[in-house]
Hints:
By secondary structure, the chain is α+β, with helices and mostly antiparallel strands. It has one domain (3-106): Glutaredoxin, CATH 3.40.30. The protein has helices at 3-13, 32-44, 57-67, 85-94, 96-106; strands spanning 18-22, 49-52, 74-77, 80-83. The relative contact order is 0.19.
Amino acid sequence: MNPELKQRIDDIVNSSQIMVFMKGSKLMPQCGFSNNVVQILNSFGVPFEGFDVLSDPDIRQGIKEYSNWPTIPQIYINGEFVGGSDIMIELYQSGELQQMIEVALAS
């Protein structure tokens, strides 16, 4: 990955305490997996930002290399990669996600 793209992704990841790289937007997710993540985060009523990877092919491909994770969506909390849709569902069901979010928003 070239340094400019890595810096762009770093800037996006760190622009919000909770950042979701997704297909579509928070208001109109363009795939079921992105929609799952949006619904989970909305259920907590916490602020988060989304980046539509469909709008930027460089970011769409680069984020996979950046995180070493092959699929979209990807969720970052306080700059740390958490995972994709399946991991978010597991963390939500176990109660761990709520704790992670509470810690992130308290910092």
